[in-house]
Amino acid sequence: MANTAPVAWVTGGTGGIGSAICRALAVEGYLVVAGYRNPDKAKSWLEQQRSDGYENIVLSGVDLTDYADCEKGVTEIRDQYGPISVLVNCAGITRDGTLKKMSPEQWSEVIDTNLNSVFNTCRSVITDMLEAGYGRIVNISSINGRKGQFGQVNYSAAKAGMHGLTMALAQETATKGITVNTLSPGYIATDMIMSIPEKVRESIREMIPIKRFGTPEEIARAVVFLADEESGFITGANLDINGGQFMG
User: Fold this and answer.
1) Half-sphere exposure of 18 toward its Cβ, with a 13 Å CA cutoff?
2) pTM for this structure?
3) Catalytic residues
4) I want to staple 243 with a disulfide (CB 3.0 to 4.6 A). Which of 95, 150, 161, 210 is the partner?
5) What residue ranges do the domains of the chain occupy?
6) How would DSSP label each residue in 143-200?
7) Looking at domain 7-188+215-237, what is its CATH homologous superfamily?
8) What are the pLDDT digits (tens) for 11-60?
């Protein structure tokens, strides 16, 4: 039987925040296509989702830094499940270092994965969204794209650029039934954060006015809100979700 549910593509879907987004969208009735980098990890991840009762989540392995591969992946998703109506750009990496010590490879890898990928995915889905007269694009940026961060010129630049793309594309699609928005999470209690030495982790927590880390589910809740059909008057916006750590 052909899929009749709306299709949501979540890049970086098997990560900490991505997993919560996939689950939240699945609960809302979407057929969720989770992007991944590591096939072995993705397979075990999907088995876990199935055992937890999420039957409407599937996988798609696309090289987000390769435009042709993104186009191919979107075509395969469309042919198998239907056109993508919600795109969530959640994939990202870090290659930290001060600018003085940063290699061109560290710069390029982060820009390719965190920013060029957003062009590649948006460009690959936009024609179908325009033809349908409907679409929701949510780009997951970062507090460090808003305020900068020592040792992260590559990451901060990519995440800031992501919102620039959001605002421009929102204007291009404003009369076409398509919204484009950014979420900028602060420190979220993913495995990456929780693996930081406790002393360092506590010093970070103390900088957050709410005095706790956010949860992946709190980010996912905001994605579901922006992806909703009734959120059509919100476009070109950035929503800071950082416990009050940065206000601007």
Assistant:
1) 26
2) 0.96
3) 155
4) 210
5) 7-188+215-237
6) HHHHH--TTBHHHHHHHHHHHHHHHHHHHHHTTTTEEEEEEEE-SB-SHHHHTS-HHH
7) NAD(P)-binding Rossmann-like Domain (3.40.50.720)
8) 999 999 999 999 999 999 999 999 999 999 999 999 999 999 999 999 99
